[in-house]
Structure prediction request, 430 residues.
Amino acid sequence: MIPVVKGTRDILPDEALRWQYVESALRRLLELYGYKEVRTPLIEREQLFAKGTGESTDIVQKEMYNFTDKSGERVTLRPEATPSMVRAFVEHNLGQVMLVPKLYSFGPMFRYERPQKGRYRQFHQLDVEVFGVSDPAIDAEILEMAWTLVCELVPSRAELVVNSVGCKSCRPMFSSALLESLGDRVSELCGDCQRRSKINPLRIFDCKVPRDQPIIDALPHSIDYLCKDCRVHFDAVLSQISDYDIPHRLSHRLVRGLDYYTRTTFEVLIEGMGAQNAVLGGGRYDGLVRHLGGPDCPGIGFAVGLERLVNTLAERVAISNPPAVFLVAIGDDARLVMLTLIRELRQAGFSTQMDYDARSLKTQMKRADRSGAPCVLILGSDELARNEITVREMRTGNQRSISKTALLEYLGEALPEWTGKSESNGLVQE
Ligand code: HAM
Prediction:
């Protein structure tokens, strides 16, 4: 057996149902807020991330799956979606085509990280981006939506953390203040932080090395160095989310591990998830579109880590999707009729299963029970002779004979009540 690659995993049928449940809940919300789906390739030019995600980030420094393809082109398995979304936005001129480009995308990302619970080398994100709006109203709407979508799936254990990292005019002052405050103590920090202090001192806040923390905790805070415009913007965002009654905590350490952020940054954390407790992260990136060759166009967005969201759901919700109908046939003649009936039932929209191996009535009934189908159709020689079929409601054990011609109509009326399926996604929440 050739096992799965380290840091990647199979999503098996029971878990896949939870993914479908989460994805359909998310899609429903995205539609409410006016987002449109885009699907971008999993491979992009290496340069897109080196330039977009940023040379000083851990992603670009250590975590990308880069390779040279047969034509000699350097390509990368995307580690995040934002640069790809910006590329698609610019390449297809979506700023002209769409009234307000509000885009989303689902899919796998690849980062060569040390795998642990909640951290994988192939993982999945819902990525959400809005282009062309600089008003703080969109920051607040994005925060409200991020909060709503996490709370819908993980009620009561989420925390929204917010910060502002300033813009290209005030950031240099903050970077200098960081270096000044560090002074000679730079040499006491870990090797990564010493490197970060040279390329982008803000990245020092990403450090997880315990020995460095007392020094980092004493560093200045970005919100004390905001220029007037950034301050006004941030105050408006905070005031709007307070009006929305969204609980939040300010954290000066939330600079986020990617280079493109300006002004608002945020994460949603889930209590009790261990070290990998950020289920969602994002922020504003007003210089990125231009930096990647597009027009001067602001942007803001976030990404949800779907594994982390599905994991939290797994602890609370059992989901199944049993067939609506299970067919039981006794004898060869009945079996032949069943084979035709199963097709008719599916064509009429009833999910249907049967026991293919023509076992005893008892075994077939056991299988029908295990399938979870609310309705079992039984066909034996008596039924065949009368051109009828026995319909059994599994929950109550009630049975009745129905003529074959009336069957589809009868099921159409009875099944919605017997299944209890939610209309939106066809899954049963147990
Ligand atoms: P990020 O914080 O790198 O941001 O990732 C967003 C989310 O993806 C994290 O909060 C986490 O839930 C999940 N995630 C990240 N790495 C892993 C991993 N190795 N295994 C499992 N889950 C993971 C971004 O990717 C930005 N592109 C978000 C953004 C969009 N900012 C603006 N627009």
Observations:
- Residues 80-82, 111, 113, 119-120, 123, 125, 127, 129, 258, 278-283, 301-303, 305, 307-308 surround histidyl-adenosine monophosphate (CB under 6 Å).
- Residues 422-426 have pLDDT under 50 and may be disordered.
